[in-house]
């Protein structure tokens, strides 16, 4: 299993920022991966700044402290967290910097029976930053492990009570991350962007540089069901 998320060379990632993979599994199928950028708020007070396994453990505990696996469908399992953390800065478009990697496996099976949503649908969660521009908006797709089939109507609208419950869990998850020993803060990592300027002499304009990561101020659960087919992969 590859711990480092693929395709990170195009991202600008400052020192002690990283990418976490939250790992779920539906039955014996491929894992469903949720990626989350992060940084450590106060390096001087982060006891595990150079220990990605400890960071993975802390993110794992923050999730399980907000989401009870016993409330998940019996079809789903929580598998743990993988982390890739950069100890040296990486600038998009320049030489790739290899991160240090760690993983924390913590199998927790769902405990509820009944009719649940298919494994290839998901909650769409928006990452709000409070800053303008498309580059300062992100999203992630969470598996439907906590939602019964009857909570989504024929048009794909999710019951407001279910949206509220998921919103509360994600808010608690974010608070747990910030309150942990390493004060982990979710961020949106940025890539180089296409330059809208016209070509000069037939030569395309150079891409716009990637900015520094944007701090996520809030997770917002969308009220329409989405799909996560491209989030399913084989280890």
Note down, in words, how this protein is organized.
This protein has 235 residues and is an alpha+beta fold. Helices cover 14% and strands 31% of the residues. Mean pLDDT is 85; it is low at 229-235. A hairpin with a 4-residue loop joins β2 and β3. α1 (52-64) packs antiparallel against α2 (160-179). The chain has a domain at 11-113 and 127-139 and 173-195 and 205-217. Strands 2, 3, 4, 5, 8, 10 and 13 form a 7-stranded antiparallel beta sheet that branches. Strands 6, 7, 11 and 12 form a 4-stranded antiparallel beta sheet that branches.
Structural class: alpha+beta
- Per the principal axes of the C-alpha atoms, what is the gross shape? globular
Strand composition percent: 25-35%
Percent helix, as a range, is 10-25%
Average predicted local confidence, pLDDT: 85
| Total E-strand runs | 13
> If you compute it from the alpha carbons, what radius of gyration comes out, rounded to the nearest whole angstrom?
19 Å
Main beta-sheet annotation: 7 strands, antiparallel
Poorly predicted sequence stretches spanning 5 or more consecutive residues: 229-235
Give the CA-CA distance, first to last residue.
Answer: 5 Å
What order do the SSEs take from the amino end to the carboxyl end, as H and E? EEEHEEEEHEEEEEE
Separate helix tally: 2
């Amino acid at each position: 299993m590859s711990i480092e998320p693929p395709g990170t060379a195009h991202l600008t990632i400052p020192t002690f920022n990283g990418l976490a993979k939250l790992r779920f599994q539906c039955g014996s199928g491929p894992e469903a991966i949720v990626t989350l950028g992060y940084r450590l708020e106060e390096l001087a007070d982060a006891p595990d700044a150079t220990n990605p396994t400890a960071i993975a453990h802390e993110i794992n505990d923050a999730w399980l402290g907000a989401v009870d696996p016993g409330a998940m469908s019996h079809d789903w399992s929580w598998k743990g967290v993988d982390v890739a953390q950069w100890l040296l800065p990486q600038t998009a478009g320049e030489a790739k910097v290899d991160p240090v990697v760690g993983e924390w496996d913590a199998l927790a099976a769902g405990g509820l029976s009944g009719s649940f949503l298919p494994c290839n649908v998901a909650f769409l969660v928006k990452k709000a930053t409070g800053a303008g521009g498309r580059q300062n908006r992100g999203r992630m797709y969470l598996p439907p492990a906590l939602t019964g089939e009857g909570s989504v109507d024929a048009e794909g609208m999710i019951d407001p009570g279910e949206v509220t419950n998921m919103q509360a869990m994600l808010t608690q998850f974010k608070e747990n991350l910030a309150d942990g020993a390493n004060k982990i803060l979710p961020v949106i990592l940025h890539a180089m962007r296409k330059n809208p300027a016209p070509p000069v002499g037939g030569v395309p304009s150079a891409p716009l540089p990637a900015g520094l990561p944007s701090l996520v101020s809030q997770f917002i659960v969308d009220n329409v069901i989405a799909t996560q087919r491209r989030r399913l992969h084989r280890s």
